[in-house]
Amino acid sequence: MNGLAASVVEQLPLGLFALDPAGRVLLWSTEAARLTGWPADEVLGEIPFDHDRTPVDRAGAQALFDAARAGRVSVPLPANVPTGRTLFVHAGPGTGGVGIVGALQDASDARAGTEAFSLLDALWQNAPVGLAYFDTDLRYRRLNTAITAMDGGTEDGRNGRTVEELHGETGVRIGEVMREVIATGVPRTDWPLTGRLWQGHGPEQSWMINCYPVRDRNGSILGVGLVVLDVTQSEQSRRELAALAAAREQVLRRYRSLVDATASAVWIRESDGSAREDSPSFRAVSGQSREEYLGWGFLDAVHPADRAGKRAAWAAAVARGADFEHVHRLRAGRGWRWYRSRAVPVLEDGVVVEWVGTETDIDDEWRSRHRLDVLAGATLAVNTALDPETELLALADAVVPEFADLCRVYLVDDTEAPAPGRPVRGRRWVTRAAPGLPPVPGAADGTTDGAARFVFGPDHPLARAVRTRRPELELDPIETDHWAGTPEMFEWARAVGMNSRLVAPVLSGGRVTAGLLFASCGDRPEYTPDDLALVTELAARASAAVEHGRRFQQTRQVSLALQESMLTEPPAMADIGIGGLEVACRYRPAAAELEVGGDWYDVFRLPFGDLALAVGDVAGHDLAAAATMGQLRSMLRALAYDTDGAPSDVLRRLDRVASRLDVTRFTTLVHGRILVRGGGMVFRWSNAGHPVPLLIDADGAVEHIGGAVDVVLGVDPERLRHDQEVPLPPGSTLVLYTDGLAERRDDPDDCADRALLALARSGAALGLEELCDHLVAGTPADTGDDIVVLAVRCTS
User: Fold this and answer.
1) The pLDDT of residue 180
2) String of b and e for 166-185 (b: at least 16 CB within 10 Å)?
3) 549 DSSP assignment
4) Exposure on the CB side of residue 125, measured as CA atoms within 13 A
5) What CA–CA distance (Å, rounded) separates 55 from 88?
6) Is the pLDDT assigned to residue 596 strictly greater than 70?
7) Which segment of 58-62, 134-138, 153-157, 277-281 scores lowest on mean pLDDT?
8) Helix (H) or strand (E) holding 251
9) In this predicted model, what pLDDT tens digit does every residue of 516-560 receive, in sequence order?
10) For position 447, what pLDDT does the model report?
11) How does DSSP assign 302-354, residue by residue?
12) Choosing a second label site near 285 at 20 to 30 A (CA), which of 29, 403, 609, 654?
């Protein structure tokens, strides 16, 4: 394949291939190799559906090629290739030694590829030059309409017949040149010919003929191609001939550029990017007059919010002389639609002489993707909050201004069942409005909360939605007399050009608890049934989130009650029973909304005068962990209170009882007691897999107190446990804590313990209550786990 045809093939934005009648690959273009990842030298000569490289399944490929032999296949067939792309395969019947011709295109731009494939066929049929293909016997195998227009006759009257049979003496001369090209393999270009066609009886004509050999991959010549320009009228003057040839070449360049940028509206721009030629197809979209369009007026059809970006992108492409692509809104009818603009430069001797571009309507696909983005964002927003009202406010924030210019959430009274003829009442509403809109009537600051109750009549769309439990779409709402609720709201809607509304109910526990209202204003397009489907899904997800929030709040109330009953205030100095001791505690839950977890502390006086201390951590941050913590705390109190045994004995008995009753989960615990010995105070303790306590001396030095750390509770109840003792001199502070105070997810240098010691050292001079706050606020931990701090200071 040579000359113009080869140039067009190589510049098409889709991969072209051709098969011989046996199904072997004759042609595999550069774009086909790029799209698939299969080089031409590995594909040529192969039968695609008999080879492991076939881009489609064999049965599908065989069916496609069989159909192509019978007539063009209009439905593309998906294919997967090593490059990871998903391609569409198009195929149609060939002629002569070519059994099938086809195209491969990237599925992400299916419309452009399909139109380019169609335009290639249109180029053959409608090119302003005559195109014909002959086999080696010089029989017509394919021709376009320009050939028959030159001297009459029909396509059917030519196919299968030789050039000599049809064109007499002129045909003999043409045949001699074609045989020479077949014999030598050398093209014959710009060959002038004057004569009479169609049996030698046609009018005297002049042509400029280009003759090319057509080869297979092995270099064998399959036939010969003719490109014929009718120059009869221009033969009288060489100057006229040159002008016509230049015009013809320009038309051919435009055709080639159109193949690269096929779409719905086509335009031609000057080399500087301005419009000198009219584009009726563009103006059919924008509604501009010819005068409004020309020059730089076409930019006035771009949405004001997109205009600066479009102008800058177009100017940059013109400056670089590079291909251009941009997505923006264009004025279309009453509103705006999303279009993709594409353009390619037309070059002459390497210089841009003009631009050929298109505008493709992508509004439907853009809005489809946008709806999915809105749904995803709203879903994330409502699932992040944990109480029903906050969830609905988060939904309103997520949809304005991405989906709506106005969103109102009405919290309705759910104590009375809705019924026909009955108004809908509510206790509160919340408003979210897009930036730039005037203050919304009835909102406290024009954009947020409404303080007063509301009542909607039975014909209001929101009242109908509450009654029927179905969303509604209303177009031209300001033309109705029942929707606004107040005259002020009606006037506001007229001022902002409200063009459509959507309403939807939110359910919880089988009742409607809220109503959602979305409004489109100004130049935002009217809502459609597709938008109604989105709102239906938004309402369903909001309903699920509200139901979850209700259950969460119920759990939270139980959790708070449980926590308050177990994490009691430590005893005052007067109630401790050992003079000179001060106690302070802090608890910060991991899930601040639940305010409960598996960490706990306990401080209580024993019957024989010692002060018992305990800090534990049950795995988990939920109600189950809190319940287990409560059981272990109560059992520890009972066992410690009932015996004068060592802390290790209390922990061993607790482990045995809890394990046999199947109470314990993975639990760490430090339990000890402060006692008076020899005029001083001593801390005696046993450690079940818990972080080692800190001791801060009177001078502010901090260290971990040593000793054995035994196995956690719930693993081996019969294993021997150990006790340790450390003196507590006057001015010293003992700090027990859970791992949430110091643990880090990523601490390759083991810096967390050093950071905790430094934090304690920096707060050593603080009062005991302030020290606890200092440790919790400055924690080096990054896990977000529960934190418990229990501090005991010996003041004397």
Assistant:
1) 92
2) bbbebbebbbebbeebbeee
3) H
4) 7
5) 10
6) no
7) 58-62
8) helix 238-260
9) 888 888 888 888 888 888 888 877 777 666 666 566 666 666 665
10) 40
11) B-HHHHHHHHHHHHHHHHHT--EEEEEEEEETTEEEEEEEEEEEEEETTEEEE
12) 403
User: Looking at the chain, how many residues does it have?
Assistant: 796
271's tokens:
């080399």
Decide if pLDDT at 55 tops 60.
no
Supply the DSSP symbol for 606.
-
- Strand, helix or coil for residue 579: coil
Give the H or E element holding residue 250.
helix 238-260
pLDDT digits (tens, 9 = 90+) for 348-399: 888 898 988 888 888 888 877 877 777 777 777 666 666 667 777 787 788 8
Q: Is 454 in contact with 425 (CB distance < 8 Å)? A: yes
CB 268 within 8 A of CB 355: yes
- Distance, CA of 16 to CA of 30 (rounded, Å): 8
Tell me how far apart the alpha carbons of residues 222 and 229 are, in angstroms, rounded to a whole number.
Answer: 24
How high does pLDDT run on average in the chain?
A: 79
pLDDT for 110 beyond 60: no
- In which band, very low, low, confident or very high, does the pLDDT at 424 lie, cut at 50, 70 and 90? confident
What tokens were used for 737? Answer: 């804590």
- In 10 A of CB 101, how many CB atoms? 22
Report the alpha-carbon distance of residue 372 to residue 378 in Å, rounded: 10
Cβ-proximal residues to 687 (8 Å cutoff; 6+ apart), any chain: 669, 670, 707, 708, 709, 710, 724
Q: What is the pLDDT of residues 188-201, one digit of tens each?
A: 988 888 887 766 66
488: enclosing H helix or E strand: helix 487-496
Q: Which of 598, 634, 645, 642 is nearest to 618 (CA)?
A: 598
Instruction: Please enumerate in sequence order all residues whose Cβ is within 8 A of that of 156, keeping only pairs 6 or more positions apart, or say none.
Output: none
pLDDT tens, position by position, 472-505: 888 877 666 555 566 777 888 888 888 888 888 8
Contact between 735 and 693 under an 8 Å Cβ cutoff? The reply is yes
At a CB cut-off of 8 Å and minimum separation 6, what does 680 contact? 727, 728, 729
Q: Which amino acid is at 298?
A: F
Q: Is 566 a residue whose pLDDT tops 70?
A: no
Cis peptide before 401 (omega within 30 of 0): yes
What are the b/e assignments for 238-272, b being 16+ CB within 10 Å? eeebeebeeebeeebbebbbbbbbbbebbbbbeee
> Nearest to residue 375, comparing CAs of 543, 531, 549, 523?
531
Please, is 350 exposed, middle or buried when counting C-beta atoms within 10 Å of its C-beta (0-12, 13-18, 19+)? Answer: exposed
- The string over 705-732, giving b where at least 16 C-beta atoms fall within 10 Å of a residue's C-beta and e elsewhere, is bebebbebbbeebeeebebbebebeeeb
Does an H or E element contain 292, and which? helix 290-293
Cα–Cα distance measured from residue 672 to residue 678, given in angstroms and rounded to the nearest whole number: 19
- Which tokens hold the place of 597? 């977890």
Residue 270 amino acid letter: E
Separation between Cα atoms, residue 716 and residue 565, nearest integer Å: 30
Please tell me the pTM assigned to this model. 0.43
Q: What is the pLDDT of residues 623-637, one digit of tens each?
A: 677 777 878 888 888
Q: Judge whether 738 and 787 are in contact, CB under 8 Å.
A: yes
